[in-house]
Amino acid sequence: MLGAHDSTRDAGRAQRWAARLAWPLLGIVISLGLWALAARYISDVEVIRAAFAPQAGLKALVHLLGSGELWPHISTSLQRIAIALLLAMAIGVPLGLCLGLSPLFARISGPTFQFLRMVSPLSWMPLAVMALGVGEAPVVFLLSFATVWPIMLNTAAGVAALDPAWMRLAQSLSATRWETIARVVLPGCISHILTGFRLAVGIGWIVLVPAEMLGVSSGMGYFVLDTRDRLAYDELMAGIVVIGGLGFALDWLARTISSRWTQRGKQG
C-alpha cells in the first residue's frame, strides 16, 4: 500500500512539473516562430535574412560561448551593474530613510528628486563624458543614476508603512535615533528595500546596453555596437539573446531573494 501511495505521489509530482514546464516551453517555441517570421521580412537581401534567422543566431551564440569570445563582455557588464547597484543602495537607502523620517527634508528635497527622477539617465551622457572622461566612470554613473530612484522611493515607502506603535515602543524604551533606525526602521522596511532593489536591477540592465556604447571597449553594449559595425548580424542576434537571458537571470535572482526574505519574515 505504501509503495502504491508513493508511486501515485511521484506521478502527481511529475505531472505538476510537466505542466509547469509546458507553458514556458510553448512560449519559447512561439517566440522562435515569430523570430523566424520576422527574419523573412526584415530585408530583401537573402544574405541578411539568413543572418537574422534563429538558426544563424543560435549557431553564432554556441560558437561565441564555446570560443570564449563573449565571456569577457558578459563579465564586464555584470561587474558594472554590480558596482552601480552597490552605489545606488549606499545612496538610495539613506536618502529614503531621510525622506520617510523627516517631513521637513521630504518637503525641501521632494520636488527636486521627482524632477531628477523624470530625466532620462541617457540624457546625462554628454555631461558624464565631459565631467568624468571616457571609460568606466561615466557608465557606472549613468547606471547608478538610473537605479537609485526605485531604491530611494521604496525605502521611503517602507518607512511610511511602519506601524507607529513600533516607533512609540522604541521611544518608551529610550532608544537613540540610531538604535531606532538600526533595530526598528531598517528591519521593518527591508522588504520594501528589496522590492526597490529588484526594480533597480531591471532598470539598470536596460540602461546598461546603451550606456556601454559610450566610449568603452568591452561589455554587451559594446559587443552589440561592434557586431553592427562589422555587419555580423548573426552575432548581433546572439548578443541580444544573451542580454535577454542575463536580464532574466538577474531578475529571477532578485525576485528569489525578495520572496525568501519575505517568507522568512513571516515565519519569524
TrEMBL record:
Start and end residues of each ABC transmembrane type-1 domain: 74-254
InterPro entries in the cross-refs: MetI-like, MetI-like_sf
Membrane-protein topology: Multi-pass membrane protein
Main location class: membrane
Tagged with keyword Signal: no
Segments crossing the lipid bilayer: 21-42, 81-106, 115-134, 140-162, 199-224, 236-254
Localization annotation: Cell membrane
Keywords: Cell membrane, Membrane, Transmembrane, Transmembrane helix, Transport
Name used for this protein in its record: ABC transporter permease
Species this chain originates from: Comamonas piscis
